[in-house]
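help with this.
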Amino acid sequence: MSVRARPDACPGVLAAHDAADGALVRVRLPGGQVTAAQLEVLAACAEDFGDGSVHLTSRGNVQLRGLPPETGELAGRLSEAGLLPAPSHERVRNFLASPLSGLAGGLVDVRPLVAELDTAVRAEPALARLPGRFLFALDDGRGDVAAEDADLCWQATGSRDGVLLRAGEPGVRVPPGEAVEMLVSEALRFTEIRGSAWRMRELPGFSGVRRPSRPVPVGAFGRDDGGRGLCVAPLFGQLTAAQVRSFGCDVVVTPWRSVVVPEFRAGLLALSSGTGVTACIGRPGCAKSRADVRADARPVSARAHFSGCERRCGKPRDAVDVVAADRGYLVDGDWVPVEALADVLAQKGNR
């Protein structure tokens, strides 16, 4: 069993993280679902308290950065908007769900299960003790969020059947109507046996099963009802307050730092960066970063993640690993000077 030397310090709204550019809070969005009214509140809070942007995360949540040390007024606004329904459980409401579920494809619409799971987790006082990194997932059968390293995942295998995955390892068969009860039961068991472990894969007997990442393709998609929707991926997962307001409808934030918009609108196409590159905040936002990674990543179009240090914050699955080092970067462990990064990564992408 893995032994952690320090407690989990995953940020929330009431447990802000002190970064070089100010306080940072993370707002949980169960299943990535966020209403138009909540988007307006997030945009206003970014303008009034933060750096003016809403930052998408690799778990389908959002972050606000550049905040003052005291975030009480911010928490009040988020609470009024329904974005902080249970302060005791705020850091454990980490629920992925297939972003296109109920819109296009999939065997089961898992959106109702997201709401049911959120309610059930908040109703269990013991689950407030889950580490902030513990992750639930509800996969509608297409295998997208089942590949995102969830601790506990229910994946549909038919319209009336599914399977429980623990650290990616398939287990018992579970019909949709019993999925939430099983997930809560397994999470409670984890709290009893975890010791200092943060993740299921850290327990004896669990190594974690890796599956190929299956992000929602960027661009237009056909809905099951004959209409069209759109998936947009802003550069580095960062949206200005004005861009957030431009959605003008309920949307789904994905774990690939993109946004699913149910109704296609051509004007939103400009929000996508057109590249596969991602990056942590880097300098000057993070004191631990060795470089301004976002500036260095801008010329790159390959599927790669730039990290300012070995923590590799926000690194997506299956992205080329690019870590800042002395006078350059380590690309999958090999040192490369900054001026050669674009060519080296392009070559990796063509293999």
Remarks:
- The longest strand covers residues 152-158.
- The chain is about 20% helix and 25% strand.
- The longest helix spans residues 179-193.
